[in-house]
Protein 1
Amino acid sequence: MLHRDLIVTTKTGLVLRYNNGANKVRAIPLRYLSSRPLPGFVPSEFAQFHPTKVKLRTMNTQTTQTSAPGSYLLGEGDYDEMLDSQGQARPHWSVLMQEMEKLGSAEVELRRNEALKLLHENGVTYNVYGDKGSSNRPWQLDPIPMMISGEEWSDIEAGLLQRAELMNMILADLYGPRELTKKNLLPHELIYNHGGFLRACDQVKLSGHHQLLLYAADLARGPDQKMWVVSNRTQAPSGAGYALENRVAVSRVMPNIFRHSKTRRLANFFKSMHAGLIEIAPPHAESPRIVLLTPGPFNETYFEHAYLAAFLGYPLVQGDDLTVRDGYVWLKSLTGLKRVDVIIRRVDDTYCDPLELLADSRLGVAGLLEVARRGNVAIANPLGSGVLENPGIQPFLPAIAKHFLGETLKLQSAATWWCGQPKERDHVLANLDKLVIKPIYRAHGTTSILGHLLSREQLAELRERIRANPAFYVGQEHVSFSTAPCVTPQGFEPRKVMLRCFAAAGRNGYEIMPGGLSSSAPEKGDMLISGREGSISKDTWVMAAGPEIKYETARNIGAIEGGGNEHALPSRAADNIYWVGRYAERAEGSIRLLRATVKKLYTNPNNDDPDYQESLHALLRGVTNLTGTRPGFLDDDDAALLQSPESELISVALDEQRSGSIANLLRNVVRTGYSVRDLWSSDIWRVMDDMDDHLAQPQQLGTNPLWQLQELLDQQITTLSAFSGLSMENMTRGEAWLFLDIGRRLERAMLTISLLRSIMSVYHRDGVETQLIESLLDISDNTICYRQHYRSYFEISAFLELLLLDYNNPRSLAFQIDRLTEHVAKLPNAGKGQRLSAEQRLMLEASSKLDLVDLTDLLVISKDGIRENLDQHLSRLNYLLNALSEAITAKFFRHDSGPKPL
Amino acid sequence: MICNYPIKILKANPVRYRVTHTTSYEYTGKVGRTYNEARLLPRECQHQNLISAHLDITPKETDLRVREDFFGNKIAYFAITEPHSTFTITAISEVEVHGNLPQLDLSRSVAWEEVKNILENDKRAEVLDARQYTLDSPYIKTSPELAAYAQPSFLPGRPLFEAANDLMQRIFHDFTFDPEFTTLSTPVQTVLEHKRGVCQDFAHIAIACIRSYGLAARYVSGYIETLPPPGQEKLVGSDASHAWFSVYLPDVGWMDFDPTNNQIPGDQHIIVAWGRGYGDVTPLKGVVFGGQEHELKVSVDVARLGP
């Protein structure tokens, strides 16, 4: 029985050893590998890997524990990318293999984890729809690249260039003269019956030669040992951004190997793509504005959209960031409507225009297709290009290539039979158990089916389905795929592999990315149908003929100079980032209050002291007030709750479902932050990701819950401080930062007011007040400051001076109003000269009110024990801040109700 | 095998109509902007000359463009940017209709099996164009049940038009006109089961039946002139938009049948648009921002101007 220890190094340097059943390792959610487990916390999912609880799984082969390639056992009859049939390394793999041998499999495994950590920290995810708990699946990467020799690549490249050109011509024909169906080079039914053939897009053309701007093909090694095309992606091909991110990660964990290899670089591909997008811009656009249209944060490849948008310098927009006016498309930016000239879309075409296509789509822009029809906006890829993803087109490509290009196809397709023809249908029905059955149109709930995995009953059922609607299906030869080495905790293992390649139309024809996104099967022996679901990605190294020495990282790839995109922060993004600021600050304020309350309750409880009791109750009511988690401690009928407040405090901290709870606020920070993913630096994102990790961990407090709660709150404060520190220090002072900080300052001011009103508006006897002041100073982190400036005796007027009026105290109300006054002067609508904007006027009043405060007057106590002046003063300030928030919301954020069909 | 006789003889005196079709939406809230597509302007075709047609839109539209769609119908795109709580669009068209000949001999068309064969194999542009109307389309899916219903009409060797005429008559007798029963999205299958619906449903049923036999059928939208009961005066706006179906016979063309009225359209049917089904010829589509609830009013007036 062989097994080995899995060593997990956490961020805090804590080393955990898990004596677990070997290949279950991958099942440990990645977030546990890279986050800090709380002391005393054992997340329940983790428990199954705990040394004492693990049931060991027997590993019965020698593949465990030994290093490659001695134990690299090839499957029978499989073509392996690295080793030839004699077990010798192929020449283009030999350097990599030697280096891997030098490192040894344990070291490579460590680097695999390193790479995964890197990707995780960069927030690289692939979302899985419908997975409720955590919708972001960490991106899986195997550090061993897929190697392609320069010689083979030149064949692949030539083949892909020809394919891209051919697809381009077919697209132009299908929405133009339709010669192909008229001459029967494509069967009429194959096109007219296809869900991707959008009649509304007929005769809509981009200017210039290229209609298909982006093209991706999935390749796998066919039986003749050459690369074959398995499927085509022509809608909104995904993966190019992941390929780039993979390259950055792999080149960082294996810098030496990468540097000494002659791997071709990826950057030129994106430059060429950018040039191609400029080329299709409508002629009126001198400096075209390009935007990237995403379905939003719930989309499976949202990470990639944000990543590419940031890399290419294009605003990342959602459908309702755009609007159609007077025959053009406009971006609703902070500074008004900005004309959009080119849209690179990651929204499926039928969802792009609720007027002409899917009426109930909320992801599109009403009237978009009409603008494209008039040539006033260019969409890449054009609406309707999904028709080319029809696998039924494959068998007709050789004849079409001859017709259009006078050439034979350079890259083979996997043999495909369209069941809309009688002979072909009969062939498919007779060989169902050997073929892959695919629908010609990918709709919800349709997938490829591997015939050989079906039972007799399932085959019969499938046969019936095909017979009932033959034109909807193709049968495809089952390409068995080659294998390539993959790192596992047990050493190297051959896994089935496929490769997605990318083409982009540049200024002078198509450019192929020298590399691509390889994916390998999750388990040995597994087949791959889709390149994504559950698969593990690989970087792809294409060997250059000559040396290429430039070291490639995200930084020196260099963001592309996007023309015309300055000052175009979508107002949705400004809205979201403003709320990130508010939520983060609200979370921090709530945590600080909660922590001080817990501290009071937990350290030195002096239940016999009436002053202690009263001040504690004031704090507890303050918790309910500030977090808005009513009734909580404000429920007059529930005296028992004040007596034993633990469970309510824990709920306010941890119950994510409860609006206003800390967990709920942090979730809002992450969720809102994720929707403007493209605006954060990787460092800031790492902090956001930490919050997400904490939220994902089941919070089970042990025997000493309050103590553990305090630990947790401390940790959350640190995380939030890291976030605010990074955003202060590392964010350019542009529009995004401005709105983030306005949100933050506004919230801090309002929280301070709420806290003071809740606790100080009512006079408590001196003993109580002293204790409250002590807590409030602790909450605002001002204790030391207070002692330095004043004396050790806590006195209310000095306290209020520090917290309300001290312009030098970053936690005072005066400081927030001061910042807000500066900020509103920088808003796009700020008044010039004597005329002030509404926002400026509000802040002018707020700061005058503070300036004119007479402390003695504020502290006057009325007969019924209320500090009326203080309360009224604070109430007016609160009103002004609320008015500021409303004014900003009304002026800068979108407030359209959503579109509805007529 | 192909008959060459002219299917219609143009009448010496075509009938002239003015059609006024008004659609209005009353909203409970304010509508900020709308984007719209209207297929309300009649197309020109063999049976019909267009004298004039225009749209009156309130509030005043912006960015109006009229073009032809995939099927050759007239389609008007426009936006309304002025905030409003009532939207009215009126299409006013004058057309001249030449009716079918009353002495048409349906039995002289080709057998339906032969038509199916031509549709499958003939590569001429006209036949290829008709071929798209043999396929399933949104709203219209063929099924064994529909084929079974149509079977008594599609007897072996029966001339196509005779089969279509028989189908029209059977639908007229078997189905009950019931505006309450169906909505736009009621599937043909349900209509077949309950044998209730409106003109649109009857046209869809007929089309699905005909396509079940591999033949080409399309959906025609338009208007029909209605006459008041004897002795009464016709009320303005009491007409309605109407729909029927059309069947393709190679070398002859398309022949219309109206299953709601059990008649072959003559000079009382005015064509607006055609397509694979209702979805291709929706009279008015739009996207509205704001507005909340709305109330819809439609009135159609078909006035005979002469002869």
Note: Chain A has 30 helices and 24 strands.
Protein 2
Amino acid sequence: MGNTNENYMASEAKFAKIRKRRRGTDVLFRNLFRIAGVIAAMMVILIIIFVTSRGVRPFLGSAEERVDLKYFLTGTRWRADQGIYGLGFVIINTLIVSVTGGLLALPLAILSAVLITRIAKGKLSIFLTTIVETLAAIPSVVYGVFAAGKITILVRDLANLFGISTYGGNSSLAVILLLAIMTYPTMTTLAVSGIRAVPKELDSASLALGATPTQTSFKVIVPAARSSIATGFTLGLGRAFGEATAVSMIAGNALAGPSWNPFDITRTLTSTMLTGLHETSGIDYEIRFSVGVVLMIVIVSMNLLVHAAKRRLEKKGGAVS
Amino acid sequence: MSASKLKKIMNRAGGTKKETMASTSHSSEISQRDHIAFALEDVNLFYGDFQALRDITFDLPAHQVTAFIGPSGCGKSTLLRCFNRMNDLIDNCRIEGAIYRNGVNINSDSVDVVDLRTHVGMVFQQPNPFPKSIYDNVAYGLVCQGVRSKKVLDEAVASSLKKAALWDEVKDHLRRDATQLSGGQQQRLCIARAIALQPDVILMDEPTSALDPIATARIEDLITQLKEEYTIVIVTHSMSQAARISDKTAFFLLGDLIEFGPTDDIFQNPRDTRTEDYITGKFG
Amino acid sequence: MTRIRKIKDTVMQSFTWIASGISAWVLVAILVFIFSNGWKLLDRSVLFGDYHAKNIVSGFSDEHDVNATFTPPEPLEDDEVISTRFGFAVRDEIDKEKNHVHTLTWVDDHSPLRNGKITTAGPTQGKPAPFKAGMNINKLVFIDGSGEEITVGRFKQQSPQEWIPILERDAKQITEFHGKEPGGGMRGSLVATLMLIGLSLLFSVPIGIFAAIYLYAIAKQNRLTMFVRSSIELLAGVPSIIFSMMGITLIFPIIQLFGASGQSIILGSLTMAVLLLPVLIRQTEEALRSVPSSYAQASLALGATQTETLFRVVLPSARNGIFSACLLAVSRIIGESAALIFTMGTAIQDSPSVGSGATSLAVQIYVLMGGENPNFELASAISIVILILVLALNLTVKVVSALSDKKGKA
């Protein structure tokens, strides 16, 4: 022990007790941290289990009471008032509007990303990035208000030009435009970070071979960033599938489908879950959980599909980071 | 007796003849003698498959400054961290062998690591005061221990800062943020912070390599003063520093302890050619 | 470079400008639409007023001063009719439902209309019910010179130009006046949103920070940890409407045990708490990792336990990042709608309470936009409030992290 005269540690017994308490506190908190980690990790699984178990209920039970699963998955009419629940066309609608919207946003996102990272200088680049970030920060209800007030009017006027009448502008096209706007920020952000991660040597090599900076951007850099861009597309699609409030404000909720005509009203999985929530009861309420399960399946399937597509591309074209 | 075994015995207790005769007794018993701070026996340390320390055996003397020297990667810092079990924080680090302190092997599971570190303090290469006030930095260890009395803390802070030769410069600014001190002052603060716990041993890992020559000189003076109360182990890549301030020196190479003895002997009469080569600058 | 190549080059470049231009134009269009529709509505009565219109019957049980004369503070518009004896001015207006209403455009501070008390029987009887500018006045009952009760006002099919002179000429004592607070305010949702924020953070912040600490300090680099991380990342990708369903299926049965029933703010808060976990955990872990490891090492070397090191040294140094994480969480709560529609309900409340359903600002917008007659103006007004809050929070986060970066480099 230290050999100074004033020995603060003299009262050994007292400090031994404190030491024990400190050790106990340490162990306690370490376990609390573990528990928190477990809770956070378990949530996803719990969500899947609980929502699914509620969602399968309408299909169980006696033959008269239960909803026909086969028709649910493949049917083309949704009449809650008549007890007809065919979700098939809704699934197709959801895919149509989300994929179209995503495909509309993707080239714009890539072009914007090229501008932000390769063409625009410092302050302008920051300004453009701020625009994208602001778009990303706008909540979906606000997008819904804008869509109901402006986008539908646009669609309605456009349809009038062709002599087509619309349901006030609520249509597939309106939803597609809305989803394109809403997924654009995600795709742009990921494209930007993907492009920034491309090593400078590729740039130099291309320029040294006599390519212009623009050619380099599109022929070398963007392909090199395709992994991030694909991730951005996937994330954007996922959000498009799951977007609920804004879409339900302008979808129109078609009773039958699928809606191939862009000026027709449409119905998506999420709009089905939300519409008419105030006045529901019984099967009409319960079936929404089933629609939720279908939504989860659609999203997971899409992710798996993209994952598999990525793998196949890697095998063919060499390593993709 | 094989050469390596003989070398081991000679390295124990610093290699003087008288001490060699007594060194065949058990390390544990040796470590309980007043003049020995740590007795190491066949310490081997592995990072995964890589062996960083090989069969280290020697006795670290108390109330002296012992310098660990050797080229980069020779294991001197690793060994230093063994004395307060800071290597425990590294994944994949495995240690074999024993390090005895007061008769107890500090590597055994029964030893309270947290308690050990209040007896064996450490000063790091980069001064790392907490972003708190000077007072709170020095008092930190005691506060964690459970000391609450303001009087005791005030005394401890003052006494530690005095011993670290920093008191006069900061006594009117104890509440100032520690990160505003100069590099040399910060390092003295870190020394004060370690001293506040009244350890037996202070480990210093290249404490002056980040400081300018003037600050370095002040810390070297400080170390020479401190050895009256504490055992000091200092890792240094500067041989002149080792020659200036240490009483005993240990030379390491690729995980082996090549030679250990009084500093003057090592520097003027090294027994091993590798020691001589290193000291004369042929490598490292 | 050949001409063709140059043209191609310029064309491609212009495409990038057009793409960004479109996004800028869309952003401007959104902001212009929202602000132009909602700005004119933003005054104190909308921000802090009730949503639901309230009918009020106010009156006097004792006498009041009838000899005062009042003058309006500003000159009147053409169609405002003033009562100088009783200190108020009325104008005939058309409300949202295309009905005529007589709106009080000015009520003097000392006007008797300020001093009425509720006369309808019930729990609120006797409480002060001042009539203020902005309210509608439907009828007035007074006692004339001969002691008779006379009723005047819109309910008697009289225009302001007709009934106010009658009042001025004949009234000896006003006994009662009936009117309507037009409502259309967002205060209820504002309060509900604050409650939601408080409760959601209460549950999510501790768990989020502790889980982040687990990942930072305790979890080893093994497959189990990777599994935990993946689970948390997956949670971030779940659409918010699914969280809504989780709230009903997983959380509701639990709080039912504690006596809750139906949609409620508490259910919404717990749902939001789960939704916020990935954001909080990710940001907090980043903040923890940005603290130099030498602090933790020094603390441990001084004989502190890991827990002490965390609470005394690491967390305090990471507080900027953790604060940013909380701000981002608040921003998320304010903007969230789908997760709350199922769990908190769609009933706009003027006096929300934790145990019953209510609407947050975002959900109120959703409700207002539903149905045959969407209320664009109020929805836009609330959108403005939401946008200002969300953008201010995001800006603060950026400023805070820029400041911490500077500090770190100094």
Note: The CA atoms of residues 249 and 266 of chain B lie 7 Å apart.
Protein 3
Amino acid sequence: MARILIRFNEDQVSEPIASQIIIEYKVPMAILSAHINSKGGEILAEVPDTILEKVVNAFRQRGVSVTVPKLIEVDSDKCFSCGSCIALCPVEAISLAKDCSVEFDKEKCLGSTCSVCVDACPTRAIKSIKQNNSDSANREKKS
Amino acid sequence: MKKLVESSGVEVAFKEVDVVTTGTFGAMCSSGAVVNLGHSDPPIKIEHAWMNDVEVCHPGAAVDLFIGATNMSEKQPYEYGGGHVIQDLVAGKEVELRATSYGTDCYPRTALKTIITKEDLNQFYLLNFRNCYQRYNCAVNSSDETIYTYMSKLLPRFRNATFSGAGELNPLMNDPDYETMGMGTRIFLGGGQGYIIGEGTQHSPKNLNGTLMVKGDAKKMSPEFLQGGAFTGYGTSMYVGLGVPIPILNEGLAKKTAIQDKDILTDIIDYSVPRRDRPKFGQVSYKELKSGSITVNGKKVRVSSLSSLKMAKKVSQTLKSWIDEGTFFLTSPVERLSTTTIFKPMRQSEEIPFVYNVMHKAVTCTEDEEIQAIAKRIVTKSVNHIVVVDEVGRLLGIVTSWDVTRAMAEGKKALADIESHNVFTAKPDEPLEIASKRMAQHNISALPVIDIEKKVLGIVTSEDVSELLGR
């Protein structure tokens, strides 16, 4: 599965673009989080690798921005593995390793759409990355 | 030791093990540092002082200061505080000192600004008056809102739990009768060597809540084991690494140091109740706490630690390596920690009002009543709020005189059209100040008072509050 961040602008929100693509490509897209209103919005979704390229192209053909988001940054110099964040995470992306180090699963993390752990870190080691449109769309191709 | 006692028994363990090292690394708010600055020219008798914009105390004569770990920066409150200042000094960083004074004949100077590092200080002692709690509570939140506490962020309706402490690795837990600990015991403190100088404040040995007062030369400590911490909505603190070596003087100590997480129990406490005695939801062992989930009220709740077990292990292992290398020598205490001290609550000569002091009977209605009837009741009872209840008196909603007026203006007839279901409430034993804050925060003028089953016990209004305060 690959994670993509789909961003709609003001003109696109009135169209059922995501639904059309889901039906057309029969893609079992798991929506992890979505924030959309009349001014635009974003969907964080998971798509099977086999169909990823087609889905990304379909969105882009309709003028919708698709990026592979970097969702979280953890400063390992600041983190001393207290674990305050672990039980807060709604998707269990944070866990304690065998040596009691706190580990972040960046594949599971919901990033700025969630951020529940960020203000609970006593050393402010966690940063959820706010996505913006200048994020290179080419990053998609590298993955 | 734990494994050895289990596999070979206490007798063998006593013969084979000389010392058990322990360790903990957690937020210890009652920490701080004493610094002596030396005299400026012309000299100043400091009255107020700030280090990196964190106000520090002036407990002594002219140039002695105490940096309290929880004092917050005036420019970055909740993010940077005394604990961070201490960490920065320990790390060798430059710290800005500002001071003011009223000026005297012998100390004429009235203002001072300078940059200092730890090398510039005559003395820089860590002096922590309560560290190393033997065990600590597990915190949960039963309310409908996220709360920010010194036990970190607690999500509503038991969606997470937090705990603190190293459990079986905790120094005091391994010597619960304090046979080897007391004034003069040399310890690992903040990455350097320090001493226990007595029982900590709030020491409560009979409840297995012993604490330590400790001191050490902060110039020789490490910023890895002394770190500032920020608790959103609560304030700043300092994480302290502390380890105590326990000489195995007898078989009893061999047995005691074999203590395991499963044997250490602590209370699950509801931090949403803003009282000294908060409701408890039973007990839980450190083994369960470290497993990542516990059961509260029959519900599975994910739990995580606020103190670092990884760092606690590092403390005890570092201490062990120092002893092995011959750079750390054990001492015998000159006076053991008390096993009888009692921790008393505060004597309060002035009572504060609680919700039950001012609440009065609520005027109620049921959902099948017509607006006309409710309007009449508002007039005859001369109230502004009607509480909607079910047949057994449980809260369903609230209707205000304004809602009724609006219904008349808009021609609405059904109660359902005007009733608010999202009702903010109060509990009878809440301090009135907290209930009053809730009203102000949500811009409302009354709170139905309910019990745990949501039965309406009464109502408290903003008029009740102002009447009481106006007296």
Note: Chain B has two domains: 16-131+162-253+308-347, 355-470.
